[in-house]
Each structure stands twice: as C-alpha cells, then as structure tokens.
Design goal:
Elements lengths: L1 H13 L11 E7 H4 E9 L4 E8 L10 E8 L2 E6 L4 E8 L2 E8 L2 E10 L14
Antiparallel strand pairs: 1-2, 1-8, 2-3, 3-4, 4-5, 5-6, 6-7, 7-8
Length: 131
C-alpha cells in the first residue's frame, strides 16, 4: 500500500502543469491603454470555458462596473474572450505569462490590450504582439 501511495505521489508530481483555464480559477489582469488607460480589468477564467470580468480605477481601486460574464476559448497560443453583453471581444496571443491582442466591439477594432497572469497590473504593453 505504501508503495502504491508513493507511486501515485510521484506520478502527480511529474504530471505536466495544467493548460490555461484548466486551473480552478485562473486570473489575468489587463490594461486597455488606448481606450481605457485609467482602469484595470481582472479576468477569472474557469475550467468550464466561462469567465468573470471585474474593472477598477487604478488610482482609487474603486469598481467601475458590475462583474461581467463571458466565455473564453483557446487554440494553441490564441485566446479569445467574448463578453456576454456589450459586444466586447478580446482576441490575442498568449506568450508565457502575458497575453497581448486587440479589443473589438461589435466587430470594430477599439484598442490594443495586454494582460499578465496573476493580479499585477501591467505597467505597459510593449510587445510586437499588441494589435
């Protein structure tokens, strides 16, 4: 029994890290510098393909919106978040711990954006991946 338990622990330790969205509540923090530079947005991606977005004023920390629901999908390095309301779509590329791309509303380009995995607010969106 002890050998079996040791084997299970070893297998779990050597298993690859879960991919994006497979963790129980993966968090990304975004900035939309061109359109909404004074705000930060936190996305909580769920394993079931849904997410919740919260927005805050960077200076005061005050919420700027009620939480917004949406769905996400990922194919290779491309990640797309689509809000259930307001017609916003974040379409971009995940590069390690960063996510860069273009924000669209009802199919029209609004702004470049970037997000970092975790709760740190991006200070800039310096990347050739930004749309």
């Amino acid at each position: 029994m002890r050998a079996l338990l040791s084997f299970i622990v070893l297998v779990l330790a050597l298993a690859p890290a879960p991919a994006i969205g497979q963790r129980s509540d993966e968090i990304w923090t975004a900035r939309i510098f061109d359109a909404f530079s004074q705000f930060s947005y936190t996305w909580r991606l769920k394993a079931d393909g849904t997410y919740i977005e919260e927005g805050h004023d960077i200076q005061t920390g005050v919420a700027i919106q009620q939480p917004i629901n949406g769905v996400w999908r990922k194919s290779k390095s491309r990640l797309v978040l689509t809000q259930d309301s307001f017609g916003f779509v974040f379409d971009g590329t995940v590069d390690g711990e960063q996510y860069y791309g273009t924000l669209f509303q009802y199919g029209q380009k609004v702004s470049a954006f970037c997000a970092w995995r975790g709760t740190e607010i991006p200070a800039s969106c310096d990347s050739d991946l930004v749309g």
